[in-house]
Design a protein that fits this description.
With 96 residues, the chain is α+β, with helices and mostly antiparallel strands. It has helices at 9-16, 49-61, 66-73, and strands at 2-5, 19-26, 32-44, 78-91. It has a 4-stranded antiparallel beta sheet. β2 and β3 (32-44) form a beta hairpin. α2 (49-61) packs across α3. The radius of gyration is 15 Å and the shape is flat.
Length: 96
C-alpha cells in the first residue's frame, strides 16, 4: 500500500494499467532483493487516506513527524494504491 499523486506519471500510469512490479533492493553485502508482481487498485478520495499517509510518515519520517507528513499528503488529488501480489521473486545472500 502506498500513496501517489493522481496527476503524476506514476498516478496516471496506474490508472491506465493496473499491472505493477515493485522491487526492494538491499545493496549491502550480502545483497538481497524481493520483487512483487501484482495488480494495483487505485482509489481517489479514499476515506483512510489520512491514516495511510500518517502510517507511511511514521515509517519514513519517524513517529515525531508522522502527523505532519500525513496531513501534508492526505490532500485532494492523492491516490491510495493497494497492490495485490500475484507473484513474488526473492534472492537472499546473493554475494557472500
Amino acid at each position: 500500500m502506498f500513496t501517489t499523486g493522481r496527476d503524476t506519471a506514476k498516478g496516471r500510469a496506474l490508472q491506465r494499467d493496473p499491472l505493477v512490479v515493485i522491487c526492494v533492493d538491499d545493496p549491502h553485502p550480502p545483497q538481497s532483493f524481493v520483487q512483487v508482481q501484482g495488480t494495483a487498485s487505485v482509489q481517489d478520495g479514499a476515506e483512510d487516506l489520512l491514516e495511510i499517509a500518517t502510517r507511511i510518515g511514521a515509517r519514513y519520517m519517524g513517529a515525531g513527524r508522522a502527523d505532519e507528513f500525513g496531513r501534508r499528503n492526505a490532500v485532494p488529488g492523492e491516490l491510495v494504491v493497494r497492490v495485490r501480489p500475484t507473484k513474488i521473486n526473492a534472492g537472499f545472500d546473493i554475494a557472500d
